[in-house]
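Ticket #4471: structure export looks truncated?
Reporter: QA, pipeline team
Priority: medium

Steps to reproduce: submit the single chain below to the structure queue and open the exported record.
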Amino acid sequence: MSVKECTHHKDKRRKLLRKICAGFLILAVIVLVTFFITWAILQPRKPRFILQDATIYAFNISGPNTILLSSNFQVTVSSRNPNSRIGVYYDKLDVFASYRNQQITYYTGIQPVYQGHKETNVWSPFVYGTNVPVAPYNGDSLTEDKSDGQIFLLIKMNGRVRWRVGRFISGRYHIHVTCPAFIPFGDKLKSATPGIVVGTGIKYQLSQRCSVNV
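Actual output as written to the record:
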């Protein structure tokens, strides 16, 4: 085979490779444009979360040297999907409480669930912790806040979600939900947010909107 023939075959391969690469590039552009157009038409919105209430069964602070917190309460959180064409898969959702940027309870998992168009789900998980060490810089504040009759907590939910449009299901996205909760103590029935006795606990109606980041 002559040098001229070898050069001719190499040129053919190069042209074929260029055509294949151009084809993949065009296909990728079409897919991306289709995705963004579909996304714009559907106008996806994040789920809306509301912390409806909290029932406190225990909130005990012990010390003095090492501050330990034992708590047990039940929260009711609702989630609404505002989208009319997009469903949401909650593949993983963990609930916990934090005080001044410190986690003070264990994680409580919520069962995976699919949330259809315009649907609302309500969860009432128990959130608790036993002898959880409180950071020294938070211990005094926690004791003082409880003595003052009100503690500001954050009920947080972290997990992963997927979006469904028709038969298309997206990849997993992280979701972070933060709900403010002002918990009264002291004279629970005469506070600004009066509680309702529920068995051995006190239930407070909160109705707090939560921030959602996806």
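Status: closed, not a bug. The export was complete when the record was re-opened. Leaving a note from the reviewer for reference: The first helix runs from residue 3 to 42.
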